Amino acid sequence: MLLELDRDAPQPTADPAFRRDIIEGFSRFPKSTPPIWFYDRRGSELFEEITRLPEYYPTRVETAMLSAHCGEVGAVTGPGRAVVEFGAGSAIKTPHLLSAIAPAAYVPVDISGDFLRESSAVLAAQFPDLPVVPVEADFTKAVALPKGIAAMPKLGFFPGSTIGNMTAAEAVDLLRTMRSSLGEGAMLLIGMDRVKDIGVLVSAYDDAAGVTAAFNLNLLARINRELGGTIPVEAFAHRAIWNDDAARIEMHLEARRDVDFTIDNIRFSMCAGETIHTENSHKYGPRDARLLLRAGGWEPLREWIAPDDMFAMILAKA
Ligand code: AVJ
């Protein structure tokens, strides 16, 4: 059962916030932009394609863990919780969780309204008796949950190592924000990627088919389309590098030559080799992961580790 988008929820931050983040980010040195702006319609489709790449292990590994261990998750959470997923439900992960924990409602929260509506409709069709209540919002800010689910105990679901996009300070803020959005007695099931072989990490973010490159470059096309930009997209190259000190993969867009362009009539220029830092994807060791959760106000209850220490799934309580 698909309920209407929650009208009380904060409106999507779309144009003004996109413009502000991009102009600000391009005005800094080095240039950097927040990864949330990857996910327009095309970007969301490209990300789905990334999750099916042979090199991109996180989705496959986490999905296998969920399918193997969701019964154990359900045994700890008990039935009757509203599952609040941060990010539009992934068609392949969410059903495993929903079928195992007997939830009272399912609330996907995502900034991309179109994508959210579509994925919600697919899930609602799969679970005809489950109230599905999509909320179009930026979950990095406090989310006002629909009134109907306020009284239910919550299970936050934050798969995919999306937390890896944040610096430690941002991640702690977000975890605390989630804790207050989800309320008393909440639990959180979170996926966190592990530090591993650098070759495996780099190829996951620089695949042979060039899908991640297209995903990264789509940001420039989106700026041109939505903000009247004149960026010569073909003058940029996708780069994925491992920053060992910060334990993260960084994605950049590197100017192949000197370039001049405008965004909303504001002039920018970049030298050959200069980059726009478009994403961080932090990886965690076992203690890092628990420390981060505790700093964010969540006490780990159980954790499941994929073979070869590829990925971790942690269930924590507020
Ligand atoms: C959606 C943030 C989990 O960091 O692995 C995938 C995004 N970027 N390939 C990740 C992403 C390039 C992804 N997250």
From TrEMBL:
Protein name (database record): L-histidine N(Alpha)-methyltransferase
UniProt key word Methyltransferase: yes
Domain Histidine-specific methyltransferase SAM-dependent: 18-317
Listed EC numbers: 2.1.1.44
Keyword terms, alphabetized: Methyltransferase, Transferase
Gene: egtD
Coiled-coil blocks: none
Gene Ontology biological process terms in this record: methylation
Species this chain originates from: Sphingobium phenoxybenzoativorans
NCBIfam families: egtD_ergothio
Entries under InterPro entries matching the protein: EgtD (IPR035094), EgtD_Methyltrsf_superfamily (IPR051128), MeTrfase_dom (IPR019257), MeTrfase_EgtD-like (IPR017804), SAM-dependent_MTases_sf (IPR029063)
Any single Pfam family the record assigns to this protein: Methyltransf_33
Gene3D superfamilies reported for this sequence: Vaccinia Virus protein VP39
One function term, GO molecular function aspect: L-histidine N(alpha)-methyltransferase activity
Keyword Methyltransferase: yes
